[in-house]
Amino acid sequence: MARLLICNKCKTVDRLPDYNREADLEAKYDYALQDAVDLHLRKYGSDPNRHPSILADIPDRELDLIDPEQLQKAVHDDELERFLKENRENYKEDAMRCFNLHGRPKGGCIDWCQDSRAIGVTVGKAKEDKQYLCYFCPVATHVATVMRMEAGLYK
After folding, report:
1. Closest by alpha carbon to 62, among 20, 21, 3, 102?
2. Which residues pair with 131 in a beta bridge?
3. Does residue 69 lie in a domain region?
4. CA dihedral angle for residue 20, residue 25, residue 28, residue 34, rounded to 10 degrees
5. Residue 1, in any domain of the structure
6. Would you say residue 9 lies in a domain?
7. What pTM did the predictor assign?
8. Which 3 state secondary structure label does DSSP give 60?
9. Torsion sign, CA atoms 64, 66, 67, 72
10. Are 151 and 84 in contact (CB under 8 A)?
């Protein structure tokens, strides 16, 4: 899970790594967040009260699919939530079309994670680093269950 630090005044977006909040509820050891805030304040002004911001969680897979320029434009236009929802819904709709095209399979899928179903930037990426439409498909739950069974997690 990635995090986005969004300054509503400056309209900037900074990507931060995930942080285990359960282990540190006050986030006093969240050095990535502290560094990002310090850098932002040094660059845009030192008064933190003049920089209202939000920290948004987003799955890494979804964030990797988003064009950074479109994300920045959505933040600038104060439409981040709508933008993320529309992106997610578009992938879900495309995955359902594919699911129906294959006859709504109950088991695995013949196209599971094939290059024809890759989305986002694929050139120069290893197969395990690519993103696929399949992750938004109902078949993904079957695949995840099989993988967990093979790993012995249901014993």
Report:
1. 3
2. 119
3. no
4. 60
5. no
6. no
7. 0.58
8. helix
9. negative
10. no
DSSP string, 4-39: EEEETTTTEEEEE----TTT-TT-TT-HHHHHHHHH
CA distances (Å), origin 10, targets 32, 48, 71 = 19, 12, 14
- Tell me, what amino acid is at 75? V
Q: What angle do CA 53, 59, 62 make, to 5 degrees?
A: 100
Structural domain includes residue 125 = yes
26: tokens are: 């006050």
The label of the residue with tokens 């630090």 reads: 5
Cβ atoms of 84 and 78 closer than 8 Å: no
β-pair partners for 7: 12, 53
Residue 42 pLDDT exceeds 70: yes
Positive/negative CA dihedral, 144, 145, 146, 150: positive
- Tell whether the model's pLDDT for residue 9 goes beyond 80: yes
Domain count, the chain: 1
Structure tokens at 2: 């990635």
Q: What is the tens place of the pLDDT at every residue in 114-152? A: 888 888 777 788 888 888 899 899 999 898 898 899 988
CA–CA separation, 152 vs 147, rounded Å?
Answer: 9
Euclidean distance between CA atoms 85 and 90, whole angstroms = 9
Number of Cβ within 10 Å of residue 149's Cβ equals: 11
Domain that holds residue 137: 88-155
